[in-house]
Design goal:
- The N and C termini lie far apart (about 60 Å).
- The chain has ten helices and five strands.
- A hairpin with a 5-residue loop joins strand 4 and strand 5 (about 165).
- The chain has helices at about 1-20, 35-50, 55-65, 70-80, 105-110, 115-125, 130-140, 145-155, 170-180, 185-195, and strands at about 55, 85-90, 90-95, 160, 165.
- By secondary structure, it is mainly alpha-helical.
- Strands 1-3-2 form a three-stranded antiparallel β-sheet, sandwiched between helices. A two-stranded antiparallel ribbon has the order 4-5.
- InterPro entries: HTH_11, HTH_HVO_0163_N, WH-like_DNA-bd_sf, WH_DNA-bd_sf.
Length: about 200
């Protein structure tokens, strides 16, 4: 069993390391005497953050099958070298490729990585006149849960509650959902498959 786990870990690291190795500046990080395995782990973190922007520490660590100390070590180096950046989001610290996303996009990605807020945003993009009761029924959560997250989304400038609920900067939110659909949940993948009908182009 340990051999199988190690092989799964190596395969996961190699898959994301291939993405990370193509990232500018990563090659220069190998001049510190790291062995190949540690370099692969660092490249894998870069590749993972690029493919899953807004992931928090525990998800990153677990998806890459790394140890806590190992993950902390490499993230500290990547942060100090300006390859990745982080943003505090409540109890989480979320990680992003450096200089790629605006503060609004980072905030949006953080909420899109949470199941209920993501579901609310997707449902409102599909059905702009959906009420809080509609959202609660669609997501199988309480009306109080919808109200609580609506307040948070409004404070984050992702939602307006002036006349019902309306997604702020919907084009940006849709773009993030489409670009990173595979890294969210099944609801985002389904939304991406039907998104052509939601996008309107000026003639």
């Amino acid at each position: 069993m340990p051999d199988r786990v190690d092989e799964e870990k190596r395969a996961t690291l190699r898959r994301f390391a291939a993405l990370g190795a193509a990232t500018p500046f990563v090659g220069s990080l190998r001049d510190d005497g790291d062995d190949e395995r540690r370099s692969d782990a660092r490249d894998a973190i870069v590749g993972y953050v690029g493919a899953t922007p807004g992931a928090h520490f525990s998800k990153l660590r677990d998806d890459l099958k790394l140890g806590t100390g190992e993950t902390q070590h490499h993230l500290k180096r990547l942060l100090s070298d300006g390859v990745v950046e982080s943003r505090r989001d409540g109890d989480y610290r979320r990680f992003f490729p450096a200089n790629r996303f605006s503060p609004f996009e980072q905030t949006a990605l953080g909420y899109l990585r949470r199941r209920t807020p993501r579901g609310m945003l997707i449902e409102l993009l599909r059905t702009p006149d959906a009420t809080g009761t509609d959202l609660a029924a669609s997501l199988d959560v309480s009306r109080a849960t919808v109200s609580n997250y609506a307040k948070q989304l409004e404070a984050a400038n992702l939602l307006s509650r002036e006349n019902g609920y309306a997604v702020e900067s919907p084009e940006t939110v849709i773009t993030l959902l489409l670009r990173y659909a595979d890294s969210f949940g099944e609801d985002a993948a389904t939304f991406a498959a039907e998104a052509d009908s939601l996008i309107r182009f000026d003639p």
